[in-house]
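User: Hello, can you help with two protein structures?

Assistant: Certainly.
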Amino acid sequence: MRRSPRLALLLLPSLLTLVSCISAVKEFPSSDCNGAVPAQFTRIYIGSPAHGGQQSGTSMEDPLDGTTADKFDTILRTIAEGQHPTWGTQSQIAPQNLIVCIDSGVFQTSGQYDWLIDAGHTKSAVNTGFTVEKNWRIHGHGANRTALKLIDLITDQFVASDGTAFPGGHNIVIGTHSLDASGIEISDLAIDANHDELNKSTGLALNLSAIVLRSTGGGHWIHDVKLVGASGDLGDMTPALENFPVLIWGDSENGAPSESRGNLVEKTTLEKPGKRVGHGRSPGGSGIGVANASAEVRNNLVQGYEIGYGGWSLREVWFHDNVAKDTGYGFNVDSFDNLGVLLESNQIIHPVAYGIVIGGSHPEQRFSGWRVLNNTIELSSPDTIGIVLQGQVKGATFSGNKVFTDDPNPKGTIAIWSYSSGNGVINGGNIYQDNQFDRALAMDFSADPDFDTNCRIGNRDLQDRPLADFPDNGGPSGCAAVAFPSRNLREPPPGR
C-alpha cells in the first residue's frame, strides 16, 4: 500500500501556521544548528534543494534534498545503520553524534517502519524508513514551521482479548536503532502520525506513535514538540497492545530503571488524536509515558487522548506542572512495581472517567512511597472519579490536592475511591493532609478494609470547612503533618 511520497507545498493547517516551505528565519531555535559545529559531532541540514545549490548539506542555504520520504529517510537510515555514507560534502559519516537540522516545510517519512531492536529489518523492504542512534539531535525550525508526516505502516496479525485474531497496523515516526542509542534530543518540530488518512487507506485498527526512545543509557530530551494524529486502536482490542505516542523506555519491564536516567520531556503538546475506531474508548492512545526509566515530565499538554500521562516500572519519576484535558484518564499507573513517584502541581481538566489512577490487582505489585502533591482535578460529568486507589498503594502522601466539579448535578461523582481490585491487595498507611474536596462529591472507602490505617489531617471542603465523611484522626499510633521541601527544576541532560 506504499504510495509515492512527495513534499507537501502547503503546510498542514492543523500543524503549522506559516504557509511557506522556505523559512524567512535563518536562525534555528536550537543553538546546535547555528554557529560552529559542536566538537566530535557531524551536522547535516535537510530541506528543499536551493536554486543553484550543490546540496552540500552543511548549511540551510544549501541543504540535502529531503523532498520525498525515500530521500529524507535514506539520508538518516544509511547513517544510523553504520554505512558511513557520503552526503553532500561530508563523507564517512559516523552513526553516532549526529545533529540533524530540518528546514521549514512538511517532510514525509515512513518512520521506523519494520526495524526492531536486536532483530533488524523484519520485512522484505529493508530500504524503508529510518531510526536514530546514540547522541542524535534532531531539530526543526520550530513546531509551527517544521513538520514530519507519517505516510506508511507495517501490517501484522494480532489477538484480541477474546482470543479472536485480527489484522492491524503499527508504526513509530521516530524510534531508536539500538539499546545503546542514548542521549537523543528531539525539538522544535511538529509530528503528524496521520492516523485518519492511514486508517482510511487500509481500513485497519492502528497503533501509531510519534516518539519512542528505548535505550538503557537514558539522557534523552524531548522538548518544544507538537503532536497530532497518534492512535491506540489496538489497545481497545486488548490491553496488552496499549500504545504511548510519546514514550521514554528502558530495556524491558524487568530491567533496572536506574540504567536509563537523566531523561526530560517538556513543553510538548499532544492534541487532535486519530478518530476513534469501532467502539473504542477515548482515541489516541496513552499520551506521554515513562517505562523502566527515571525521568522528569514537566510543562506538557495532553488533550483528547485516552490517558494523559503514565507508564510502568517507575522509579524517581517526577510528573509536574502538566495539563491533561478531556482525556479518559488524566494519569494512570497500574503495572509492575512503581516506587517513590512524585506527582506534583498538575492540572487534570474534565477527564471522561478518572483523574488519577494508582495501584494494581496483584499482591506482588508495589506502589509505595508516592507523593501526590498540589494537583488540581476538575470534574465535569456524572459518574466520574477524581482519585482512584485500586490496590497496593502504601505509605503514600496526598497533600494540597483540590478535587471539585463544575457539574451542577454531579450524580455518582466521587472525590476519592479506594478499594481492593484483587485478592490479597490492600491500600493502607497513607497520609491525607491539607486537601480540598468539593462537598458535592462522595468519598468512597467502603471497599477498603484498611481505611483506618490512614492518617487524615486538615482536609477541608472548598469553603474550608471540615468534612463529616472524611474527618481528621490521629492515626492508629498518632500522626503528624508532613513538610515538603521545595524542588529545583532539572536542567537539560548533560552536554546540551
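That covers the first. Now for the second protein you mentioned:
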Amino acid sequence: MDGVEIDDLYGLGLDRFIPERASLVRELRSRGDREQAAKVAGLRKPSVAAWAVNQLVRTQRREVDELFAAGDALRDVHAGVLAKRAAPRDLRAAAEREREAVDALVVTARGLLSSGGHELSPATIERVSETLHAAALDDEARGEVSEGRLVRELRHAGLGGGLGGAVPAPAAARSPSKPARKGTPTPAEDRQPAKQRQAAEAAHRREREEARKRARALERDAAREVDRAQRALRTAQERQDRAAEALRQAEVAVQEAEAGVEAAVAAHRQAEQQRDAL
C-alpha cells in the first residue's frame, strides 16, 4: 500500500469520497492490513471549497505555479517597500498580479459542479478565493494546498491580506517639482523674515510628529484587530475540528456496523448451506 490509492480519493467527485473510502477500507481489511484500513477510515471528507481547490491543484498546474510565483513576488516587494528598497507602485503592480492569478483560478472553479450537480455557490467560491490567496502568501498554507488533499478551506489572517490597498507615496514622490539645492534659498525664502521661516518649520515638524503618532496608533489598532480575528478564527477552527472528529467517529461506527451486518449475513448463508446439506 504506497498511498497512491489514498491520493486518488481526493481527486474523485465529492459524492464518491465516502463510498470509495469505505470500499478501500474493506479491501484493506480483506488483505489483513487493519492498520492501514484504520488510517483510511480516519480520512476526512473535504469541504466543498477544499474539494474545489484540490481539483484546481490537480488539473491547473501551470495556473497554480503562477499563483505561487505571484505570491512570492508580492511578499518580496512588500518587504522591499518596508525596507525602502522598492516603490509603492511596484507593490501595487505585484498585488494586481497576485489578484489576477487568484481570479484566473476562481474562473475555473466556477465551472466545477458540486456533488449534487449544481454550480458552486457564491459563498463557496469566496472561500476558494480566500484559500488560494492564503496559499499565495503563506508557506504553511501553500504546503497544505500543494498536496491536493485539503480537507477544509484556509484564510490568510496576516497583514499580507491588505497588501493590495493604497500605499502612501513618499514625500519626494508626491511633488513633481525639483527640491532646491541645499544652502540655496528660493525667492520666497528671500522675502520671508527669519522668524516666520522658523515658525513655519516648527509647525511643519509638529505636523509630521502628529502624523507619525496617528500612524503608530493606527498600526496598534490594526494589530489588535488582527489578533482578535486570529483568535476568533482559531476558536472556529477548533470547533470545526471537534465536529469533524465526531463525524469521523460516526462514519467509522457506520462502517463497522456495515461490516458486522455483512459478517452476520455471511454466517446466516453458511448456516443455511449446512442445513440444506443435512
